[in-house]
Structure formats: C-alpha cells, structure tokens
Amino acid sequence: MSSFMRSGLDRRGFLKTSALAAGGLIAAPYVSRSARAATLKTVNFSEAVHNLGYINLYVGMHDGIFEKNGLDMKVSAAGGDTQTFAAVLGGSADFAIGDATMAVISRENGGPGEVVGTVVQRAHYFGVSKTMEPFTDPKDLKGKKVVTSPEPNTNYSVTKRMVEQAGLKLGEDVTIVTVNPGTEIAAMLAGQADMAVAYQPSVAAAESQGAKVVFDFSNYIGPFCNTGIMVLPSTIKNDPEMVQALVTSFEAASRKTYADPDFSKKVARAEFPDLPGDVVDKAIDAELKYLIPAQSVITKKDQWQNLMDMQLYLKNIKGTISFDQIIDNSFAEKAIKQLG
Fold this sequence. Notes:
By secondary structure, this protein is an alpha/beta fold.
C-alpha cells in the first residue's frame, strides 16, 4: 500500500474518524491511530486561502511528514493575508502562511512577528481572460478592468505595481475591481472584468471553461517571497522544538513535492475533490513548471528583497526592518543540514 493510501483520508475525514473513535463508535485500527495521535504535538496552523500554491503543505500532511516529526496539524483557511496573520497575533494559530509583509507591518508598528521559512518562492498568480490575447507588455492593459482580491492581498499589490510601473494610472487607464479572495475567476467569467489575477487550481478550472492564461506573474517578477511562515517570537522562545519540527517538515515536503509529481497530483486531487482530476493535474503541472512552490524552506535574500521593494513602492511598509531582523533562517539551515 502506498504512503498516499495509508494517509489517504483528507483532513475532514481524519477529524470525523477521530471523533468517532473518541466516541467509541469505531474499533481497533482507528482507536490505535487515535492513541498514536494523542502523543503528537497539536499545531494550530492558519493558511491565507486554500490553494495549490501551498501544495507542499498538503503533500507534507498526506505523506505523514508532519506526523513523523511529531506534529498533529490542525489547518484552517483564514480568508486572506491580513486575517491569517491576525490569527497568530490573536493566539488562535501557532503559525500562519500568507504574505509575510504582514509580519513586517506588525514590527514597524511596535508589534511582534518573525518569518522562519518560505512556502511560495515566486508570485503564484496568472492573468486569466476569456476576451484578451496573451501579452507580455503591461501597457496592453490600458482600458481594461482587472479583478483581484482587496488591498493589501498580494495579487492586488503585484497588479497595482505592474500597472503603475508601466506608466498607467489606476482609475483612469486601468481599473482594479476587488472581490473576496478566491472569487476572482468567477467575477471575470461573469463579465465584471476583462482579466482576473488568480492562482491555482482556479486558473486551470477557468481554462477548462474556455478562458486562457494571458499573463505570467511568476516570470515577470522573478524570485519572490510570495508566502512566508509567520510566527511570534514568544513561540520561538517557548517551544523551539515545535518550530524546528514544523520547518523541517516543510523542507522535506517541499523536496517531496518536486521529486514525486504524481504523488503531488494525488494529494491535490484529494484536497480539491470537487474539481475534475485532469484540471487539478494541469494545475500542478503549471505550479511545478513555473517553480512556484518553494524548492527549499529557507528564505533567500533576493526573494525577500523583491517582496520588500514592491511593498516599499506601494508604501505599505517604511523599510525600517532589515532582513536579519525579521528573517530567522536558523531552523531552515538546521533542517537542510539534517536532511542532507
């Protein structure tokens, strides 16, 4: 039996099974598993939005990598970058993944926040349209409406900067229409905009409905810390073993994601069961082709600098927090050394 099949229950299924076992409604094998789970460290983990940019997280969960490192992951989607870091600040999550700028903003305002790893190493957005032709010059957006999530979500930020750097004026030359994160494609298909700036698997789903990718943000921007692992300094101080276990798990999961694309596709199908399997497979092919999920959890200076340059341009940050002040790569470095 494959490792995927051994851990084939999705998160909802696992929670349901655990509840039944606790109530004595199912027997031996599941009770045994529940007993084993009781020895694991519970980690409350917040993801900004459930999407395939985070495939390394899902691979780690389905392959039992987090469990192997002693962690019982309780993952929930917050609904956006601001909300996911707010969960950490409010204490309902131990870690959050989303736009790591949120930790910088917190620090600049006298609050806490550190980044211990990278989950998405390139802008995982694509311009998708049913009416436009593929383009490489952002000036081709003149006169168009583009739909993104609201500011300060990253797809809004990268779009705004691209438009303004092309010499176009927002509100005059280009209009950005904002909708709830994850609904960008639906708004475009409904005719609210000419192009949606979206992520996988929504992009592949749109292609199956006659839309096409007309712009690639990953290569336009280059190395980019699109998504970081954010945590409070107090968590690092009080439970460094948990932080190390989590970062080591992400390093192993990131490697597994690229080393075994077929397994990554099986995981993606389990995480998005409502989408046709071929659509999900196409989404994973695109994620790996464009090197969007992090190949290693360590945060590189060029990735971080591209994120900071964009946020400085947009005046979302002041630029007073240095790389060494906000990034703690010590756990990633130890994970890399441990895994070889």
